[in-house]
Amino acid sequence: MFNGLQKKETDNVLLVAFANGDRRAAQQLTGRLMPKIYAHAYYRLGNIADAEDVTQEVFLKLWKFAPKWKQDRAQVSTWLYRVVSNLCKDRYRLATLEDLGNAQEPTDGTQSPSDKIDEQYRQKALYDAMSMLPENQRLAVQLRHIDELTNSQIAEIMDLSVEAVESLTARGKRKLIKILQTHKSELGYSDG
Amino acid sequence: MVKNKQNPKDDLSIFFEVAKSSTPEVHPDLKVRILRDADKTRDELDLVQNRTWLDRALDCLKELGGFPSAVGFTASLAAGVCIGFYSPDWSEVLASVFQIDTFDEVDFTSSFFGMNEIFEDT
User: Fold this and answer.
1) Which of residues 30-49 of B touch A (CB under 8 A)?
2) pTM to 2 decimals?
3) Given this model, what pLDDT does residue A88 score?
């Protein structure tokens, strides 16, 4: 099992190995980091095609940047998140989730059809609500609660202090709760 | 569905859980494309890292416009040097063309580039 320091060392070491000619290092890096970057892009952009394009572009930038990578700088994953969030910001559209209608496979085989519908509504409601947040709040909330990064990692990605990240996340969540209040009746919530 | 009374903040965590589980599986083609980009970039890096001084000199020549441009440049450089060292005396040619009888020589190495001689006469 890797602790955080070992993981950082491994990602950085792999990237330097790639820069020095080891092509297999690219395979390991891709396998380890691509799903997270893809997930971030997918949630940000709302459709598979754009998420795949952005993910491919992010890794292309990584391969080209590899010769200049310094081992004592930030983690590779942090760098990737910074790049993907910037690329997503450029591509961001206010369109709602296009692939929602394509009925993703349920994660829980015991889900009833009504549970699946509830899930889809919640997914869309959160996506639409997050689209209404200011960019920084939206990014902080997504990185913290969907990408599950720590506050210090988010601070590095967004080039802010940890306190600023905590403030952004808290304000973002308060605003989300307020926006989602209007979806309660659609989702079948009751106060009883 | 009943709101969680014990902790109202769990309302959001339910949404976040759904968001986390909603990402579709990555298509295998995406990984293939990313690794193809890695190979291509690695090939380009190999080319750059294995270049010799001769490769760099030829690239410089290409930037100047190739071999014909280099020949023309060299020829004009040689002509300029020759003219500089063996410059013809144009005074006789000018005298015959413009019917000029006298010439004043101005020594540009003297004070005020010879202007002092002109003002002394007036």
Assistant:
1) 30-31, 33-35, 37-39, 41-42, 45-46
2) 0.68
3) 92
A52/A108 same-domain check:
no
Amino acid (one-letter) located at B53: W
Locate the domains of chain B by residue range: 24-121
Is the pLDDT at A109 greater than 80? The verdict is: no
> Does any CB of chain A come closer than 8 Å to the CB of residue B51?
no
Q: What is the tally of structural domains in chain A?
A: 2
Tell whether A101 and A190 lie within a shared domain. Answer: yes
Same domain membership, residue A119 and residue A60: no
pLDDT at position A30 over 80: yes
Q: Determine the structural domain holding residue A88 and report its residue range.
A: 1-93
List of long-range contacts for A42-45, beta carbons under 8 Å, 24+ apart: A42/B23, A42/B24, A43/A127, A43/A142, A43/A146, A43/B19, A43/B22, A43/B23, A44/A84, A44/A85, A44/A88, A44/A92, A44/A142, A45/A88, A45/A91, A45/A92, A45/A93
Residues A115 and A34 in one domain: no
Which of residues A93, A121, A152 is at a domain's end? A93
Residue pLDDT, tens place only, B19-28: 988 888 899 9
